[in-house]
Automatic annotation (TrEMBL):
This is Luciferase. PANTHER family: LUCIFERASE-LIKE MONOOXYGENASE. InterPro entries: Bact_Lucif_Oxidored, Luciferase-like_dom, Luciferase-like_sf. Gene3D superfamilies: Luciferase-like domain (3.20.20.30). It comes from Lentzea flava.
Length: 360
């Protein structure tokens, strides 16, 4: 079992400036490398305090690559529909070189109607645009004189420079929230997977991961699929202190998310079945229930170790658990303390791909 860190800035300028957020987050990337975390990743979002400090993951990850030498850097994820595939292939290939082959390239469909509207892209085209862009980027990375005549983009013949550092290309991850079809398609294509357990039930996520693994196996791909699963994490030697932080910053997360998804109250798309109920689901959020269901990690190092052992039983012990330690405007000292506790007390309870007996 492996562990990484992720950044999702649920913060507004009144609470923390962008400069402070970036400086603090890059410091956490350096600390993550020191503590032995496997990767650092960030999202792509726009405009609102729900992720809006991260409009370009590549820019942040380039700075992270310059400060580190071992830790992998991951887009988690770039929104495929919002960038021309030639531009996206070039940006990511350049980052792969700047990091000396440490890039994991995660692609997502996006799900916020206001973002699609701002880019002038119909949200009902998201699935088709995603599939076309990911395949076009893959071909640009691996082929010469590429001619592309797609539904949304036409170009060529072109040969991309630079070609990626990693051969034949950086590992491709697909971010999936609730769609079993997307998970199965990712496995069939030989792509890796990024999932978020907070937005779906345990049973649904177990089924999606099972379908993904089966599709990978049935397609006969070499090697093993990589699955990143994302959580927020609050740790302290004092359980009450950790739970107080968890409730405070998870509530902030929900409040910021509520504003960002408000347009789903009046938006309908067959590409996103059931998303119109997001507003009601967010409004009904309960921290205690989320903690009980292991959708958020919080407590002492022993508490969190037990949670992760349970997660491994549910979803498999070959996961890479990606943790957010600085949600909202959390003081940086608190984030660094939580990372130290996790790296020094929780990670040693897990070795390789097997959960140690002492973790159970």
């Amino acid at each position: 079992m492996k562990f990484g860190i992720n950044f999702f800035p649920v913060v507004d300028p009144d609470a923390k400036t962008a400069t402070d957020y970036y400086d603090e987050s890059l410091g956490l990337v350096e600390l993550a490398e020191e503590l032995g975390f496997e990767h650092a990743q960030t999202v792509e979002h726009y405009f609102s305090p729900y992720g809006g400090y991260s409009p370009d993951p590549v820019t942040f990850l380039t700075a992270a690559a310059a400060r580190t030498s071992r830790i992998r850097i991951a887009t988690g994820a770039v929104i495929a529909a919002f960038t021309h595939p030639v531009k996206l292939a070039g940006k990511l290939a350049m980052l792969d070189h700047l990091s000396h082959g440490r890039l994991d390239a995660g692609f997502g469909r996006g799900f916020l109607p206001d973002e699609f509207a701002a880019f002038g892209i119909p949200i009902h085209e998201s699935r088709a645009r995603f599939a076309e862009t990911v395949e076009a980027v893959r071909r640009l990375w691996t082929e010469e004189n590429v001619v592309w005549d797609g539904e949304f983009h036409q170009f060529g013949p072109v040969t991309m420079l630079p070609r990626p550092y990693q051969a034949p290309h950086p590992p491709i991850f697909v971010a999936s929230a609730t769609s079993p079809e997307s998970c199965a398609a990712s496995g069939s294509a030989g792509h890796h997977l990024q999932v978020v357990p907070s937005v779906t039930s345990r049973e649904t996520l177990q089924d999606n991961i099972s379908r993904y693994r089966a599709a990978w196996r049935d397609a006969g791909h070499a090697g093993s699929p990589r699955i990143q699963i994302k959580y927020t994490a609050y740790l302290s030697e004092n359980r009450a202190e950790a739970l107080e932080a968890g409730e405070t910053y998870e509530r902030n997360y929900i409040e910021k998310m509520a504003g960002a998804i408000a347009s789903w109250a009046s938006t309908r798309s067959d590409q996103y079945p059931g998303y119109e109920s997001f507003v009601d689901k967010v409004g009904a959020y309960d921290f205690a229930a989320s903690l009980r269901d292991n959708k958020v990690l919080a407590g002492t190092p022993d508490d969190v170790t037990e949670q992760i052992a349970t997660i491994a039983e549910w979803f498999g012990d070959d996961l890479c658990v990606s943790l957010q330690f600085n949600p909202g405007a959390m003081p940086i000292a608190q984030s660094r303390k939580a990372m130290h506790l996790f790296g020094e007390h929780v990670m040693p309870a897990f070795s390789g791909s097997r959960v140690l007996e002492g973790a159970r």
